[in-house]
Design goal:
By secondary structure, the protein is of the alpha/beta class. It has 2 domains: 34 residues, no CATH class; 146 residues, Glutaredoxin, CATH 3.40.30. The chain has 5 helices and 7 strands; from the N terminus they run ααβββαβαβββα. The longest helix has 20 residues.
């Protein structure tokens, strides 16, 4: 008993390491940790925002319907690059669902993944997500490309990139919603 009292923190640390080595427990732990450390994304200062000039990006929804990103010219758009195997991506999905529930009729959302449609649909169904998920048919415009997952880019009506966040975030945060409201109010 004395041994346990002296070494409880070491034993707990070893158990955590073992759980992180087992694939079935690693992913849920990583998702939980990402949710705990996710904060509101930082916006880019207005005078430092790049302009997205090329909106030509062919996508297809999970029903096979073609969509071109050009349809978002003049609108506020949120583009999220993600995958079902990515713990930080999974961690931020509940906040995105809440945001989409509130802003889905005002903002164009694009959840883009290169995975198979059946796998993406299975993930959405399992988690009861109603997010608009797309697969790319060609390369994204240069300013929307990223080698990191998740990456989320928020574009204003004027084509200015207001947020370019790599990694998970809390997208249902009042600060981020305030930014969306500000972008929606712009002419």
């Amino acid at each position: 008993m004395e041994f346990l009292k002296k070494n409880w923190s070491n034993i707990l640390f070893i158990i955590l390491i073992i759980l992180l080595l087992v694939p079935q427990t690693r992913k849920p732990i990583q998702v939980g940790l990402n949710r705990m450390i996710s904060f509101s994304p930082s916006k880019i200062a207005e005078d430092e925002r790049d302009t997205l000039e090329n909106y030509n990006w062919n996508l297809v929804d999970l029903n096979g319907e073609p969509v071109n990103f050009k349809s978002s010219i003049g609108k506020v758009a949120v583009v999220n690059l993600w995958a079902t195997w990515c713990p930080p991506c999974i961690a931020e999905m509940p906040s995105f669902q809440k945001l989409y529930d509130q802003y889905g009729d005002k903002v164009d959302f694009y959840f883009v993944s290169t995975e198979e449609a059946a796998k993406l649909q299975q993930f959405l169904n399992k988690n009861h997500y109603r997010l608009p998920v797309y697969q790319p048919l060609d390369m994204a415009p240069q300013k929307l490309q990223s080698r990191s997952l998740p990456t989320t880019i928020v574009i204003s009506k004027k084509g200015k990139i207001a947020v370019n966040k790599k990694g998970s975030a809390n997208w249902n945060d009042s600060g981020f919603k305030g930014l969306l409201d500000q972008l929606l109010a712009e002419d």
